[in-house]
């Protein structure tokens, strides 16, 4: 099977603007499902829908839309595809110095600057922030010129002052600052993405990385702050969350469809990740949607 490194995405600002703002209807932004990176900081708002996303080494499942801030050169994929069933998606992209370097030295910008530093590890914002900023993001996507810029600063300020957020990659995400590792680590990420339903041995991935198994284990932990087993299990559990929420399959079927070949191990791993059993998760999810 052929594997692809994350694609470098060249971004040009909208005509007459210092940054890019794009609005996609459902299924229109399918390329976001391809592993890619770019020097521009990216704010993504998905209105409605659910799906899997991978930001750096964090794999997670979102429901009822998403609001994510992705730092410069942080590889990512996911968000929307033909199964997401979102209403629309707004993508805002801007370079760190799109307003000039002196602009960020202003004391009024210090909180936003701190947030952009945190975004190097990826930030996901909570339900309250998503709801509060939905109309502002829609208005920004329809604005032009100075009004558009002022709306962006207002949105960034709101994001910088909320406590309703979570950092996606624990600790410093090593890959973000060590781009020479992109080819090797993303070959591994893509291999997991393509083969997580099958058994993946350490010998297999160490061979892909042209390393011995002990060297590979140390290398992977250094870059992702996770063991390879933790990373694969996280990918499988995230897939099982999606199936539990969206498919009328039995929990046993979901266990094997997600790459686990032992039902008791699946239950144990699921509970470690979610603090709930698969049946509890499905029941609570159904109650939320009822």
Report on this structure:
Strand 5 and strand 6 form a beta hairpin. This protein is globular. The protein has about 290 residues and is of the alpha+beta class. It contains eleven helices and eleven strands. The strands form three sheets. A six-stranded antiparallel sheet has the order 2-9-4-7-10-11, with helices on one face. The protein has helices at about 110-120, 125-140, 145-160, 175, 180-195, 200-210, 215-225, 230-245, 250-255, 265-275, 280-290; strands at about 5-10, 20-25, 35, 40-45, 50-55, 60, 65-70, 75-80, 90-95, 125, 165. The chain folds into two domains: about 5-165, Jelly Rolls; about 180-290, Homeodomain-like (Arc Repressor Mutant, subunit A), CATH 1.10.10.60. Helices cover about 45% and strands about 15% of the residues. The longest helix is centred in the last third of the chain and has 19 residues, at about 230-245. The chain starts with 6 loop residues before the first strand and ends with a helix.
Short description:
This protein has 290 residues and is of the alpha+beta class. It has helices spanning 110-118, 127-141, 145-161, 174-177, 182-195, 202-208, 213-224, 228-246, 251-257, 263-274, 278-289, and strands at residues 7-8, 20-25, 36-37, 41-47, 51-55, 58-62, 66-70, 76-78, 88-94, 123-125, 165-167.
Core attributes:
single chain; 290 residues; alpha+beta; Jelly Rolls; Arc Repressor Mutant, subunit A; 2 domains; 6-stranded antiparallel β-sheet; 3-stranded antiparallel β-sheet; 11 strands; globular; transcription; DNA-binding transcription factor activity; HTH_AraC; AraC-like DNA-binding protein
């Amino acid at each position: 099977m052929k594997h692809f490194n994350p694609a470098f995405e060249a971004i040009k600002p909208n005509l007459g603007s210092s940054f890019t703002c794009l609005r996609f209807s459902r299924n229109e932004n399918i390329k976001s499902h391809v592993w890619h990176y770019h020097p521009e900081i990216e704010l993504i708002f998905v209105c409605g829908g659910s799906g899997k996303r991978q930001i750096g080494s964090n794999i997670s499942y979102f429901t009822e839309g998403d609001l994510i801030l992705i730092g410069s050169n942080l590889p990512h994929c996911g968000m929307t595809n033909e199964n997401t069933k979102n209403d629309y998606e707004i993508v805002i992209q801007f370079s760190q110095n799109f307003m000039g370097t002196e602009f960020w030295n202003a004391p009024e910008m210090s909180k936003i600057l701190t947030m952009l530093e945190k975004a190097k590890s990826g930030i996901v914002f909570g339900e309250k922030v998503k709801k509060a900023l939905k109309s502002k993001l829609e208005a920004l996507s329809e604005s032009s010129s100075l009004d558009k810029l002022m709306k962006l600063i207002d949105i960034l300020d709101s994001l910088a002052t909320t406590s309703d957020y979570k950092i996606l990659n624990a600790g410093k995400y090593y890959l973000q600052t060590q781009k020479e590792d992109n080819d090797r680590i993303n070959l591994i990420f893509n291999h997991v993405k393509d083969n997580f339903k099958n058994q993946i041995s350490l010998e297999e991935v160490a061979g892909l990385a042209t390393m011995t198994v002990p060297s590979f284990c140390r290398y992977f932990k250094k870059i992702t702050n996770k063991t390879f087993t933790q990373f694969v299990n996280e990918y499988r559990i995230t897939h099982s969350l999606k199936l539990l929420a969206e498919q009328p399959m039995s929990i046993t079927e979901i266990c094997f469809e997600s790459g686990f070949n032992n039902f008791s191990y699946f239950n144990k791993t699921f509970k470690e990740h979610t603090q709930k059993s698969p049946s509890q998760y499905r029941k609570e999810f159904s109650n939320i949607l009822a």
